[in-house]
Design the sequence.
């Protein structure tokens, strides 16, 4: 957790520093009021200070932790990039592709295809093999009906539906 | 009165409340799916509805999910929600004795009782509290938003610094878009989409629903144990006589704790369980399957529902992630919490109050009659649920503005939420800050315009000063406690060495 926490703290510092720089170019306030850049700059400073505190305290805690605790901590970070976690990264990429597919191909076709492919990839249990086909069709049908007919939302149509 | 009854018994109101409770119980009953996820995912469905049925659907999910957590707590020794963690202690031992139906019956009646007690208190005090906020102008509203943001300290748990970091980042993100005082466009990076600011619902859906799906993927093949079949869930007269005083105590405790921003069902359930054990003539029997030990946490956690709605409806202060989402729903339906809500939308407020009671009646009815169905729902494999939820995340985010960019925002928030969770960062502060950030900044600057730049305005007004002091104390106290604990730990470690 330490490594991940440290990386996040550094990213927070980078974001806060960027926003601080941008906010410096905003107009000054008038009539006693602060300008549009004052509050964001204060927030950026607080984020940077808190991130540094987090980096330091995490480091101090890590230093006094036992070898087992250190190993457990490293294991959390290792697991993220391990083979065991492939399923998460495949799900992340597949979800991104699905979301792009919604716009390019259309909601209905991409949703059915996505759920079908993910069910196959996740190896849905034997009892629910019929469900592997029926569930994507039923879920997409119900969502399409509810959003299009009841909520009057025009769902994306790409080259298909 | 007749108006309220006719509003309440409109098919749309009845169906949305019932649907909300059913979905809430289902979400609560499935470990890994949270009530927040349920409220997030189904919120877009409410946009096409009128305000009252839409909000009642969300309230139904909230009430249903808090009860639903007890189903798996009693049947498979796994709390469906954190609020049901205390129910496991005696619910599962009772199931092991072959009394699964009895355990679920007691938890159902207790949840109903706790919910009704909190509903009565909400009806009695909400309007009066809202009228106090009539005296609020910009400095008080800023102080109130600051107090609301200070909740971050209490919902961050042991990760106070990380919670504060997440909260401040949420405030910073809330400033993206057009400044509502000078109309100056901030942090849009040349994007037209960002000019109107980050839509917080896609961020919510991503943080709470999509990231949870990614986390669930890690244990996709670790299936839950099969729940035991239940019989005769209606509690006997002897059980009812035994648990009614416990339900009253639990309901009152839950309501009080629910009113306190940041304290939710999980805290109140453990407090009530502990209180019941202290008052019991047989504290040694707790943990062996005592009826009152199931009734105490269940009545208490459902008691927090009405309690949490009081500051939400009267002051616009969400006490937790669920009520934060409901605050968003109120805003979407053009309902501004506070006195104006009670002055201009009184009929809707009364319908919401009555609907809250009805939602608890549905919890009772479904809990006693529909247990077989919920036991089946608990058995749905995660491998089927995850892709379905991901599709719902996408369609829900798209439907808010009919904008594909919202879907991408949701996806990014989901991935960010996954890494933040892995790094031990709480997610709720981001949501609270995203909602309250603009309110805090806008009113702070308006106050300075009123005082011509003098900061004394914040300390010359009693209500404003009170909220600022309370908020500062709420942030500083956990920090002081943490530092003291750290030095104590060091001292202890040094002494041991």
Sequence:
């Amino acid at each position: 957790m330490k490594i991940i926490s440290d990386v996040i703290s550094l990213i927070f510092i980078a974001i806060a520093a960027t926003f601080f720089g941008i906010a410096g170019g905003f107009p000054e306030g008038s009539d006693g009021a602060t300008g549009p850049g004052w509050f964001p700059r204060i927030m950026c400073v607080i984020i940077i200070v808190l991130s540094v505190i987090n980096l330091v305290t995490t480091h101090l805690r890590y230093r006094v932790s036992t070898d087992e605790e250190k190993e457990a901590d490293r294991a959390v970070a290792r697991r993220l990039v391990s083979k065991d976690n492939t399923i998460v990264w495949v799900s992340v990429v597949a979800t991104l592709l699905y979301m792009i597919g919604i716009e390019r191909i259309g909601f209905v076709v991409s949703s059915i295809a996505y759920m079908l492919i993910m069910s196959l990839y996740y190896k849905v249990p034997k009892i629910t093999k019929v469900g592997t086909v029926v569930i994507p069709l039923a879920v997409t049908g119900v969502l399409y009906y509810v959003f299009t007919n009841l909520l009057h939302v025009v769902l994306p149509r790409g080259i298909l539906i | 009165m007749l108006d309220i009854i006719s509003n309440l018994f409109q098919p749309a109101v009845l169906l949305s409340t019932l649907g909300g409770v059913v979905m809430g119980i289902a979400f609560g009953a499935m470990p890994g799916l949270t009530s927040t996820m349920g409220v997030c995912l189904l919120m877009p469905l409410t946009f096409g509805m009128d305000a009252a049925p839409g909000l009642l659907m969300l309230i139904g999910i909230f009430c249903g999910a808090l009860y639903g957590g007890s189903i798996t707590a009693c049947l498979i020794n796994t709390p469906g929600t954190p609020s049901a963690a205390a129910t496991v202690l005696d619910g599962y031992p009772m199931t092991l004795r072959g009394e699964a139906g009895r355990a679920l019956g007691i938890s159902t009646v207790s949840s109903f009782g706790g919910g009704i007690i909190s509903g009565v208190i909400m009806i009695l005090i909400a309007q009066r509290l809202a009228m106090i906020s009539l005296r609020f102008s910009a400095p008080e509203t800023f102080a109130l938003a600051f107090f609301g943001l200070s909740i971050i300290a209490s919902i961050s748990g042991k990760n106070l610094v990380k919670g504060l970091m997440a909260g401040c980042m949420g405030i910073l993100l809330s400033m993206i878009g057009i400044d509502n005082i000078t109309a100056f466009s901030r942090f849009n990076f040349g994007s037209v989409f960002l000019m109107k600011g980050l839509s917080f619902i896609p961020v919510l859906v991503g943080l709470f629903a999509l990231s949870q799906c990614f986390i669930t993927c890690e244990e996709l093949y670790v299936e839950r144990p099969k729940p035991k079949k239940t019989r005769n869930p209606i509690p006997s007269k002897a059980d009812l006589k035994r648990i009614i005083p416990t339900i009253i105590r639990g309901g009152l405790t839950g309501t009080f704790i629910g009113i306190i921003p940041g304290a939710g069902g999980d805290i109140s359930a453990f407090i009530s369980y502990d209180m019941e054990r202290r008052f019991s003539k047989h504290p040694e029997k707790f943990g062996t399957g005592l009826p009152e030990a199931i009734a105490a946490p269940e009545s208490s956690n459902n008691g927090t529902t009405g309690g949490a709605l009081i500051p939400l409806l009267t002051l616009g202060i969400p006490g937790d992630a669920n009520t934060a989402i409901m605050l968003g729903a109120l805003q979407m339906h053009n309902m501004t919490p506070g006195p104006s809500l009670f002055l201009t939308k009184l009929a809707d407020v009364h319908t919401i109050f009555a609907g809250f009671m009805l939602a608890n009646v549905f919890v009772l009815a479904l809990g006693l009659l529909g247990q077989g169905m919920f036991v089946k729902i608990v058995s749905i494999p995660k491998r089927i649920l995850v892709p379905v939820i991901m599709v719902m995340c996408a369609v829900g985010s798209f439907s808010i503005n009919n904008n594909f960019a919202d879907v991408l925002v949701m996806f990014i928030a989901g991935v960010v939420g996954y890494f933040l969770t892995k790094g031990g960062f709480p997610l709720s502060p981001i949501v609270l800050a995203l909602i309250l950030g603009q309110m805090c900044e806008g009113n702070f600057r308006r106050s300075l315009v009123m005082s011509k730049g003098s900061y004394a305005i914040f300390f010359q007004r009693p209500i404003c000063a009170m909220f600022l002091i309370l908020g500062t104390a709420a942030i500083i106290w956990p920090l002081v406690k943490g530092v003291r604990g750290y030095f104590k730990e060091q001292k202890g470690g040094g002494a041991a060495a």
